[in-house]
Amino acid sequence: MKTRPLVAASLLMAALNGAGAQTGGTATSGAAATTSNNVPGIPAIAFDKYTLPNGLQVILVEDKRLPLVAVNVWYHVGPANEVPGLTGFAHLFEHMMFAGSKHLPRGLADRLLEGAGASDSNGSTDYDRTNYYDTVPSNQLELALWVHADRMGYLLDVLDQKSLTNQQDVVRNERRESVENEPYGIVEEALNHALFPNDHPYRASVIGSHTDIQNAKLADVRDFFTRYYGPNNASIVIAGDIDKVRTRALVTKYFGSLKRGPAVARPKVATPPITVEKRLVVPDRVELPRVYMGWLTPPAYKEGDAELAVAAQILAGGKSSRLYKSLVYGSQIAQDVDANQDSRALTSTFTIEVTARTGHTPAELEAAIDAELAALRDTGPSDAEVERARNQIETAILSSLEKLGGDGLADQLNHYNQYTGDPGYLAQDVARLRQITARDVQRAARTWLQERSRVLVAGVPGIPELPPDPPAPKPPKARSGKGAGGINEAEAWRAEMPKAGPAPNMNLPRGESFRLANGLTVIHHYNPALPLVAAELVIRSGSDANPDALPGLAGFTAQMLTEGTATRSAPRIADEVAQLGAFLDAGSSTDASSVSLLALRANFGAALDVLADVVRNPAFPTAEVERQRASRLGDLIQQRDEPEIVAALAANASLYGSRHPYGFGQLGTEPAIRAVTREDLLTFWRRHYVPGNAALVVSGDISRSDLKALAEARFLGWKGEEAPRIVPGDPAPTRARVVLVDQPGSGQTALRLTVLGAERKTVLYPALEVMNAAFGGLFTSRINQNLREDKGYTYGVYSGFRYDRTPGPFVIAGSVRANVTGASVSELLREAQAMVDKPLDGAELAGARNAELLSLPNRFETNSDIGASLAETFVFDLPLDYYSALPARLAAVTAADVQAAAKRYLDPARLVVVAVGERKRILPQLEKLKLGPVEVRDTEGQLREGQARP
């Protein structure tokens, strides 16, 4: 992937609809179509679908919610089309599509799109498709089409060995980060290998192996492009604030003259069934064992596919699921549970994964999972369970449509188009979901989820057996290949960047506020786009209010809210919320605690009843406190397996010290978790969860008057003393310049360079954001271009400010190859000094400033996004019109402002270097930099007795 893995907006949506792709149906030429609207509660999505003479399928959706347009291109190719010996090639090629084309030299497209305000700009590869997508301001649609068309038509004209070598380095770093250095990554890969035979295209992971990635030749890239990247093997969805007539003309202009490629036959691969259970034990650098079970299941949209998605939700879809209730809540032998029907074109897979609680074994987990599977096969689920699963999946599908780009509306239409031939399949999809019965689910489980037909893999603590990681060879001396010949005729006009249209109005949500008689603030934003409502009850107290001896208390208190009230048990809360098709969650941050809710409009009132109850009447039952204590201790153990999290904890502890509430993560420490009492939790709740310290923030399809009535009915009786404002003490930072956490055997180093930054209300906020965009906030930022694109040290490196009520940290973060740890730190410090020494030139300033300014509407695509932004105004005492005024403040940022911000917050001499990796490999590299004192910390980021300078 170009910058980061594509994460689905909802696992439930992925479970129902799959992640693969195949061509389905015949596109209609020039015909308009609209989704059928015979399913109550499901919005009709009007679209035009037609096919260009060269075979490109075009789908247009006019949606005026925001001045944004999503451009989403799918190519019908993935690992399913790979040949043996080149696993991961489709994903490698996805990277190559960003390496430059004839009229857009390497890096220019990214700079232009970011400077135009693009967001959700990326690409991803799955087993049956590859996609590329951007969301741009509506006046920049032509720019996005120009970029995508040039990649489709003119990549081969400039393809060279230098670009291939660089992206091989990047992809191999991605494999190290996302598979080999990721807890259980190689265990999941082993499961996939066992499910499919050696010659099956689904056997390897999408990212492939180091050896195969390195074996790719320039000729392979040229052949792959010629074979699969013609317009007749692609479809494009353009959704948002468009004029369809003008958009049709632009599509014809940029894509119409591109030549049709060779006909592409869909892969036809017979997948042999598993008839005898397979068992594997795979060691990994983890502390808790985990059991994976996998089955081969029906392809996407075939009989049994949707039924198994419902089965996955019943088995492990949250706290109302069977495996959670049995293994996590009941016997407490498991830390977490998950299940998924991963729908693909050739065959799908159904997986269950369960992590053991401390002291429990894979054998215990297996027996408990088997008991639940046997019950599902033998007696089936109840009607209520099926209804809960269907309702939550349906809400997840609808919520995914809130976004235009990314994995939202445009992507979903492209998905439906490839699987069914109908971009407007939403109504039929929900209809098939609603028709599923308990008997259907039981039948699917009996047919597909038998013990004899599964693979069982136990991931256990140990030394992992990693596949070969050969050194990258020197680039061949053969000619570069640049100019070796393209496919399409030269058209001189394509060299000219299209001009932007008139700038759209930027009317950002500001919300309306009113207070109840008891002091509760209510902030409302009306958004009727979809029948959804998001709510957040936010408390202006977070970890900043933790006592010195109990870090993590705010998070523990928030976690306990959904674990039982005076009238509702924890299981009842989970069942009731799921039955409504709603999602309820609670948590804390440095400055706030919150309970969030997402529900269908029709069920919002009933769901708000539950939210109000858990906030106002938590019972903190002793048994539930002990359950959550064990859960938090397990989370703490799992946290230690994540190098990036360990680096973040060590960075915070180094900046703030062990007596400051910001010096810890939201979990706190093991001694604190063990020491917390029920009375501590109750005291924190009584002191901070009071109406005068809270705001109910609601965005969605609900009027102000209806919300006022609901808020008064649910919260007017809520009483409490005024909560004291909390001001954390002064930080006590480490005197060391280098902080090291040893992770033996790691092939990568998780790096953090950090310094104390600014508070949220700082007047320098716009200048800091522009400065950070140029330095490390954008894909084209200085540090990412240096370490990723130029040197191939990393999959990606970024920077950013965390703004708290008091100064929060500025962080530079990324994972690099272990053998370039010192070189990476040296380059990052050099880039920081360059920002201090010299102001941005006009082009870089304009690009960074516009990237921040013009992308603002994308922050308000979903109701949850809108609610979070409005909640921020409450937490940090910002005016409700803060975001309305922000564009003008960003537009006024100058190069001098940026340099002044860099001098104040980016002084390399003040940056503390945190490195999590193999000490014996990385310490000598860091010592050569002569930065100053070095100290060693533990995996919770704390400096224990006896841990100091190596």
UniProtKB/TrEMBL annotation:
SUPFAM superfamilies: LuxS/MPP-like metallohydrolase. It comes from the Bacteria. Residues 464-475 have a biased composition (Pro residues). Residues 58-199, 522-643 form the Peptidase M16 N-terminal domain. Residues 218-392, 676-851 form the Peptidase M16 C-terminal domain. The keyword Signal applies. Keywords: Signal. Residues 460-485 are annotated as: Disordered. Residues 1-21 form the signal peptide. This is M16 family metallopeptidase. It comes from Massilia niabensis.
